[in-house]
Specification:
With about 190 residues, the chain is α/β, with parallel strands linked by helices. About 45% of the residues lie in helices and about 20% in strands.
Length: about 190
């Protein structure tokens, strides 16, 4: 089957037209999230940052008021490699000029969101990116809030606003597009 434009749907991701936005996974925010939820978020964040590098997907990262909330958690910071997080005070990363300009420089048409907190910074970023005309994919297992109710509410509001709610593995395999490649084999090891 031949597909004329494989990324014409806002639900379809391609590594060539995506960017990964890592929102505020910081030292003083992470401990406030329930331990199981924090572990899930960290596992997905690590997997997706590795997958993004594997498939050449640009990464932009932010830190909310790092002076008060600390730096990006060490394991995520290591996975980011040379990507330097953008400090912000705006809840929406899209309203932070430096972060939004970094996203624009990637030329992306779709933005994959992971980070904290789902019902505050992730939500406001998603809604603003949608208004700007970008397709937004929120990774349900890659976002967290202090309570599960807040995380679920944030996800539902983003879905109502037009964002696709997805999971880390779905994103990774959409970026891969096919089996049998070295990149696919590396991705398969990441999701085990």
């Amino acid at each position: 089957m031949t597909i004329a434009n494989p990324v014409s749907s806002s639900l379809r991701l391609s590594a060539t037209t995506s960017a990964l936005l890592v929102i505020d996974i910081q030292e003083r925010l992470l401990p406030a999230i329930e331990p199981g939820a924090a572990e899930r978020l960290m596992r997905s964040a690590s997997m997706l940052t590795e997958a993004a590098r594997l498939f050449g997907v640009p990464i932009v990262a932010t830190e909310q008021y790092p002076k008060g909330l600390g730096c990006t958690v060490a394991t995520v910071r290591e996975a980011l490699g040379a990507v330097e997080p953008v400090a912000k005070v705006e809840f929406s990363a899209a309203r932070c000029a430096a972060a939004f300009e970094a996203l624009q420089r990637t030329g992306c048409r779709s933005v994959v969101l992971i980070g904290m907190e789902t019902h505050v910074c992730v939500l406001q970023t998603a809604l603003d990116l949608l208004v700007s005309g970008l397709a937004v994919h929120v990774v349900a297992d890659g976002v967290g809030s202090r309570t599960e109710v807040n995380r679920q509410l944030g996800l539902e509001l983003m879905r109502q606003g037009g964002a696709a709610i997805t999971c880390a593995e779905t994103v990774g395999f959409q970026w891969a597009e096919r089996a049998g490649t070295d990149a696919f084999k590396a991705l398969s090891r990441l999701v085990r």
